[in-house]
Amino acid sequence: MQKGGKGIFRHACLFYSRGAVQVAMSDIREDQMRDDRIDELLVKQELYELACTYMRGLDRLRRDLVRGVFHEDAVCNYGFFVGGPDQFADFAMEALSGHKANHHFIGNTLYEVDGNEAYGEVYFQAYHRIVEDGEDKDLFISGRYVDRYERRLGLWRMAYRAEVNDWARTVPAADEFFASSPDGLRGSRQDDLVFQRDKMR
Q: Which of 155, 66, 140 is nearest to 105 (CA)?
């Protein structure tokens, strides 16, 4: 090969080597971005499960579940109640135990994750079977939980939760379905079917 040809060959090899390195670096960056997105999705799933656990605790009157979603020094701000997680768990159990039934439902969930901190907005609708003046009534409250979460020692928990109510309605109870289907399974409190896994075998 002539001298000029060798130089062209070296430049060509260098060009393709640089190109290969750039492709490899691009692949590494894409892999890292994909891993970061997967990690973020896993965090958001953890935060969503905190919301689900909280709701189960309210409906089934399980204080341990309600208390367990909060850090020890969390702030619970509901307007009518502002305090720590232990006091709130006691307050919630006492308030809801006077109802005949409850059903808390989660709607839109939006989470923003920033390292070991995250913020959330969780839409909810809460049904309460209450008794007023001896009459059964259905109280519906809908709103949003506005949350701040922290990851400590690898565990995500709520550091702040506020309940923002957007609308409410109280109507006379109407249970024609239950009357017409007396053999249908009914939800209950601490002895609900969800806790009786031996009956699912």
A: 140
For residue 30, with 0-12 CB atoms within 10 Å meaning exposed, 13-18 middle and 19 or more buried, which class applies? Answer: exposed
Q: What is the pLDDT of residues 123-151, one digit of tens each?
A: 999 999 999 999 999 999 999 999 999 99
Strands (E) across 57-132 are located at 70-77, 82-83, 101-114, 117-132
> Which domains, from first to last, does the chain contain?
34-182 (3.10.450.50)
Q: Which of 161, 188, 165, 192 is nearest to 69 (CA)?
A: 161
User: Taking Cα atoms as reference points, which of 142, 199, 146 lies closest to residue 169?
Assistant: 142
Q: Are 76 and 161 in contact (CB under 8 A)?
A: yes
Rg of the chain taking only CA atoms, in angstroms: 27
Residue 3, CA distances (Å) to 11, 17, 42, 67, 152 in order: 13, 21, 58, 79, 65
For residue 65, count other CB atoms closer than 10 A to its CB. Answer: 18
Q: Provide the pairing of β-strand 155-172 with 70-77.
A: parallel
Mean pLDDT, residues 155-166 taken together? 98
Check residue 18 and give its pLDDT.
63
44, 55, 139, 150 from 39: Cα distances, Å: 9, 25, 39, 15
What pLDDT does 36 receive?
84
